[in-house]
Amino acid sequence: MRTSINFDDDVHFFASIYAKAKGIGLSEAVNELIRKAESAPPPSAPEIRRSPNGLPLFPPTGRTITSKMVKELEEGEFDPEKFA
User: Fold this and answer.
1) 48: left (phi over 0), alpha (psi -120 to 50) or beta
2) Each residue of 46-69: pLDDT tens digit?
3) N- or C-end of the chain: fewer Cβ atoms within 10 A?
């Protein structure tokens, strides 16, 4: 079936590189990529741990989120490098 579609530049670039690497045309590459995406297993839902009172918990990282960090984040001064 013939149809026209518009790709974002990065998608077109990726499909073109994929086609060249496989030695196939762009249409065949797009078909192949769509079929791969279609047959891929669905992503698993993230496991969300909950506290005894039902509130969702952050994943355990060994770090403590302080009220100072929250205040900096609210004020727009939060530096993720200091948090990491």
Assistant:
1) beta
2) 888 899 999 988 777 777 888 888
3) N
- Integer Cα distance of 24 and 35 in angstroms: 15
Q: What is the DSSP string of the chain?
A: --------HHHHHHHHHHHHHHT--HHHHHHHHHHHHHHSPPPPPPP--B-TTS-B-PPP-S----HHHHHHHHTT---HHHH-
Q: How confident is the model at residue 80 (pLDDT cuts 50, 70, 90)?
A: low
- 39 token code pair: 């047959």
CA distance 49 to 55: 8
Q: Is 0.85 surpassed by the pTM of this model?
A: no
Taking Cα atoms as reference points, which of 78, 84, 46, 81 lies closest to residue 62? Answer: 84
